[in-house]
Amino acid sequence: MTTCVSEDYCRILLIGWDSVDWPAVDSLVAEGSMPAVGRFSSEGTLGKLSPVRPLVSPMLWTSLATGVRADKHGVLGHYDQPLSEGRLRRVSSDSRLCTAIWNWTSEAGLSTHVIGWPATGSTESLLGAMVSGDCFDRGPVDEWLGSCFPNHDPSPAERDRLEHALGIASEGVPSEAYNRGRARLLSVAVASGLPIASLEPLLGRLDALHAVACAMVGHLAGALTAVCYPSVASWFPGAAEKELRDAAWRLQDTMLDDLSRLVDSNTTIALVSPQSAPQVAEAKGRDAGSNPSNSGLGLIGLLGPAVKSGAPLVGATVLDVAPTIAQLLGVPTSGNLDGRALSGVTVEPFKGHSHQPSPAAQPPQTARCDTPADRPEAPTVAADDATCDLVSRNRRVNLALALSDSIRLDQASKVWNSLQSDYPDEPIYAIKLVDCLLRDEQYDVCHDVIQRLAHPLNEHESIRLAIARIAHARDDRDGAASIARELSSRAQITPKVLLNAANLLLACDAEADAVTAFTRCHELGGANPIVLCGLASALWSTERYDASLRAAQAAVAIAPAYTEARFALALALRGCGRDDDAIEQFEQCLREGWLPDDTHTQLASLYWGKDPGRASHHRAMAGVN
Question: Are residues 571 and 619 in the same domain?
Answer without folding.
Answer: yes
